[in-house]
Amino acid sequence: MIDIHKLKAFVAVVEESNISRAAVRLNMQQPPLTRIVKSLEDELEAKLLHRLPRGVEVTEAGKALYQEALTILAHAQAIPRRVQNISQGLEGQISIGFTNSVGLHSFLPALLRSFRETFSAVSIHLEEDGSSSLIDSVINQKNDIVFLRKPAPIGLGLTSLHVLDEPLIVALPTNHPLALQQKQIHLLDLEPYDFVLYRRLAGQDLFDNILASCYQAGFSPKIIQEAPRLTSSLNLIAAGIGLSIVPASIKDFWNKQIVYKELKADTPCIAPVYAVFKQDMENMRLSHVLKLLTEQS
């Protein structure tokens, strides 16, 4: 391995075309510099310089070494700054996970946009999955932070931060008997009708939240169809197969042949969002996300 100090000395000799001037530039004596050049030639088994009466001329092999040396020295010079940027969370990668329903809420793109504008050198890796898999991904340090519809289970060493409460609304086919109702629809009024819900396996937190709201209102919903994704359930609703209870943000994605109505219940119908992460004081990129999240709330 070539000593980086030898490369720096060789670059000075090539750029000055004179060993004496290069020695002055490097603040050293000429004989040691001459020995450095000679040791490089011996080490590489190649003639690097032609000695001339009033200086030196670089050989083809010397030109190749000079170009490589410039690259190596530039990289070496950048290492301290890069290491500092990484330690300060100004470079590197942040991995963020979210469930399908959370990914539809406007707070997430707003958060990502703010992070990108502030920390442009940090790449963002996104992953959409079910809540159980996302919790495991934080435990296994695959994701730095995930956004779920419920807090993390106790005893896993995870921290849960409440981000927001999103209202739940009812999505109805345009020809549904309740679609023409001008006022809010009472949750209990949905009892006689067929339900279409986002499949529990894909959206366990939201599914359980909706069922809990119905149970608290005094009935068990008649689920006749489950959809693999929240957005795909809208196709079934538009087709008139049934109604559904959905987060309010979904209405920004689909309003064809669907009517959205506010829900009224003794207990507010909401779908909360939580940020789940491991407390890690050394993960500065996570700290930056949490700071932006707090400012955004």
From TrEMBL:
Keywords on this record? DNA-binding, Transcription, Transcription regulation
- Residue ranges the record marks as coiled coil: none
Q: Does the keyword section mention tRNA processing?
A: no
Q: Does the keyword Aminoacyl-tRNA synthetase apply?
A: no
Q: Which SUPFAM superfamilies match?
A: Periplasmic binding protein-like II, Winged helix' DNA-binding domain
Q: Which Gene3D superfamilies match?
A: Periplasmic binding protein-like II, Winged helix-like DNA-binding domain superfamily/Winged helix DNA-binding domain
Stated family: Belongs to the LysR transcriptional regulatory family.
Entry protein name: LysR family transcriptional regulator
